[in-house]
Write a structure and sequence with these properties.
mainly alpha, 1% strand
Length: 386
């Protein structure tokens, strides 16, 4: 049964016809937005389930980072408290992969003029990234983690070093995203013109390579150069594939919920037992480039897509605004988590099963408000808010 669900997850699920799709044999399946009697506007309308999934993933990233300090304290924390951090980490580990899958779902269906694409996409993330990197460098100086002096070249070296390796723990995502944007104009041509079988072939090989790259299977990996099937690029293709594959209308939501709950329980308990046996934190089941999170992320992606829930207009507007500023919220949320910890708002506030989501909600609201205000600054607002 598990094998059947697994096969179904990888190859058989997808959404109502939304965009240009893939070829099956020599036949091209064209996926369109639903026909509407309204006048066509230049700006495409947001897709409900994608909008819901983006904001959900954004909030879960904050949950993950709010729970991680307690998770790292595996040696000293009470078992019950640590299990709360373990649970919330497992709950949210699909967030970053799903962000990448959304990018593939939205960007792979279009043809781009290379220069225009790179200018538009890269400028949208590089300027906010540089601004917030400098903010975190400034905070590092304020917090006495970085030591500047009267030597200008010494100070420049520190700043360049921080920009080279990342000024704060969460900024690795931006470096990864820049790399993906560089390959998207090329990769999208392959995906749009590939047959369904070719896309499936790429995803299967990518999954196998990822699996054999894990510490427990590395010694079984033959000395074959498979670097072209590694990294987050597979999530781009997976997102496009699962967003465009036709899905059955009945009998698939329940198996998806079961699969989701099994993944959540398996990752939570697996991390606990492995960490318990090794007497140290094991993140082997948390790894985003690992087989467990790949399957988990695919299941969540399909589950949200298969169970759309329309929001009231007012909430949908707030969701869409938050989604539009998701990059800015992501960039600044780590600063608020750090400041809030100094204010006593963290997992220590009360029972971690309650304090972690409370901390995440406060952080999300503060980040949203700040980015919304920054976005209203004339001329430079968009470069600060993302």
């Amino acid at each position: 049964m598990e094998r059947g669900i697994l096969k179904y997850l990888i190859f058989e699920y997808s959404s109502p016809l939304l965009w240009r799709g893939f070829r099956r044999g020599n036949k091209l399946f064209t996926l369109e937005q639903p026909i509407t009697t309204q006048a066509v506007t230049a700006k495409p309308q947001p897709i409900e389930w994608i909008s819901n999934l983006r904001v959900k993933a954004l909030f879960l990233v904050i949950i993950l980072h709010a729970s991680s300090p307690l998770l790292m304290d595996v040696q000293k924390a009470k078992v019950g408290d640590w299990l709360a951090a373990d649970f919330y980490n497992a709950l949210s580990r699909f967030a970053v992969p799903v962000f990448v899958m959304i990018t593939g779902a939205l960007l792979f269906n279009k043809e781009y003029e290379l220069g225009s694409f790179l200018k538009t996409k890269l400028s949208r993330i590089i300027w906010p990234f540089l601004f917030w990197s400098l903010v975190f460098i400034g905070y590092g100086w304020y917090d006495e983690e970085l030591n500047f002096s009267s030597d200008v070249w010494h100070n420049v070296t520190i700043v360049l070093h921080q920009l080279h390796y990342g000024a704060y723990y969460h900024l690795w995502y931006v470096y990864m995203l820049i790399g993906l944007y560089l390959i998207i104009p090329v990769m999208s041509r392959f995906v749009r013109n590939a047959t369904e079988k070719e896309i499936q072939y790429f995803l299967v090989v990518w999954f196998i390579v990822i699996a054999f790259s894990q510490p427990y299977l590395t010694h079984f990996m033959p000395q074959v150069d498979v670097r072209y099937f590694t990294g987050y690029i597979g999530y781009l293709v997976l997102g496009y594939y699962l967003a465009n594959k036709e899905i059955p209308q009945k009998g698939f939501i329940a198996p998806l919920w079961i699969f989701y709950l099994l993944c959540l329980a398996g990752i939570t308990l697996g991390t606990y037992f492995i960490s318990e046996s090794t007497h140290s934190l094991s993140t082997i089941m948390y790894e985003p480039l690992g087989p467990f999170i790949i399957l988990y992320s695919a299941g969540v992606f399909l589950l949200v897509r298969a169970t759309p829930y329309p929001l009231p207009r007012s909430l949908a507007r707030v969701r869409d605004i938050a989604g539009n500023y998701s990059l800015g919220i992501y960039l600044c949320h780590a600063l608020f988590l750090t400041l809030m910890s100094d204010w006593g708002i963290s997992y220590t506030l009360c029972n971690p099963f309650l304090s972690i989501p409370i901390t995440a909600v406060v952080c999300f609201v503060l980040s949203f408000v700040l980015i919304f205000i920054l976005s209203k600054i004339p001329v430079v607002g968009k470069y600060l808010a993302g």
